[in-house]
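Retry 2 of 3 after timeout on previous attempt. Resubmitting structure tokens to design endpoint.
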């Protein structure tokens, strides 16, 4: 989600003076700004703070697309100032952060695999936890532009969302669906030519807004998210942690079901309800995300395929291509 400059002194006495800053408990560090083109800015994390970047693409006035992928050495805060206010359509791909409104009246966690529609009418603080890769995509739309997309706003939108016009706090949360993940992959790994890139990204961003808003359409029957017994929830989380720590191993559903202490049918169903993917689709995605990370670190395609437990180099390359729309050796050449 966007992290913008603040033009006043915060509670720790740090003045945000129009630059892109990360605030830890010890000091404030400035990100390096780089203009990609007239509509695209990128800020790179200072090495003292960690590794990663934030990127903003202005699709049109009042309509922005933000990306982030960072790993910090300590808990880091960013402040969104009033000049960046808008409706935030946020998708957390990995890690978690905590969001706190300026007046402390609202706080919540953004966690991996979840998507949010959020509006803070005042400055808000985003705390990102250390020693994790936090990655998200966020669409920020000014309320007046957002409402112009609909002919009859009151008939379509959640009635609480209409309170945004009177500057009231709003938030909705759900899991990232398979359809949303496919759109997010097309946005993140966009290979469209520069002349058509902005048009393509805006079309995909609007499609994401549609997917989110369709979940709260008044004509759609919406099921309440299931309430899980604490033992079942912990068992599902244990399976997730086990998969993340053993990406290079071969797994079968029966063994994982035994680990969770439930049938493989229940495991798959509950896992998908919580994380938006079945067990093996989740494992495949984690392997491919890790593969992309290792490519950026300089590992060869052969080394990565071996490390992540693929049966052959061709199987890894084809799986990578189906997910990202580009072969891993093409990323190496970039």
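Retry 2 succeeded. Sequence:
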């Amino acid at each position: 989600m966007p992290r913008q400059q603040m033009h006043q002194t915060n509670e720790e006495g740090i003045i945000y003076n129009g630059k892109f800053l990360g605030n830890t408990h010890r000091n404030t560090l400035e990100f390096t700004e780089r203009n990609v083109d007239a509509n695209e800015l990128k800020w790179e994390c200072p090495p003292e703070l960690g590794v990663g970047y934030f990127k903003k693409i202005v699709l049109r006035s009042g309509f922005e697309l933000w990306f982030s992928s960072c790993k910090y050495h300590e808990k880091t805060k960013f402040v969104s100032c009033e000049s960046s206010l808008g409706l935030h359509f946020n998708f957390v791909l990995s890690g978690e952060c905590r969001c706190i409104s300026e007046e402390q009246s609202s706080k919540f966690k953004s966690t991996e695999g979840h998507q949010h529609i959020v509006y803070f009418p005042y400055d808000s603080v985003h705390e990102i936890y250390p020693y994790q890769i936090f990655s998200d995509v966020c669409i920020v739309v000014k309320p007046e532009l957002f409402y112009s997309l609909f002919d009859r706003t009151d008939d379509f939108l959640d009635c609480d969302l209409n309170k945004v016009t009177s500057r009231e706090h709003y938030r909705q949360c759900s899991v990232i669906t398979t359809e949303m993940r496919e759109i997010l992959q097309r946005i993140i790994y966009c290979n469209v030519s520069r002349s058509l890139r902005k048009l393509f990204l805006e079309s995909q961003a609007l499609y994401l807004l549609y997917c989110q808003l369709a979940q709260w359409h008044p004509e759609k029957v919406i099921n309440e998210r299931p309430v899980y017994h604490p033992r079942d929830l912990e068992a599902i989380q244990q399976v997730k942690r086990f998969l993340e720590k053993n990406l290079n191993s071969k797994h079968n559903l029966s063994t994982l079901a035994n680990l969770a202490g439930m049938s493989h049918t229940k495991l798959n169903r509950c896992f998908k309800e919580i994380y938006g993917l079945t067990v093996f689709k989740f494992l495949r995605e984690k392997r491919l995300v890790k593969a992309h990370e290792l490519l950026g670190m300089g590992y060869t395609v052969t080394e990565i395929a071996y490390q992540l437990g693929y049966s052959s180099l061709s199987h890894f390359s084809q799986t990578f291509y189906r997910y990202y729309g580009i072969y891993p050796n093409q990323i190496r050449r970039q």
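Attempt log closed. DSSP finds eleven helices and 14 strands in the chain.
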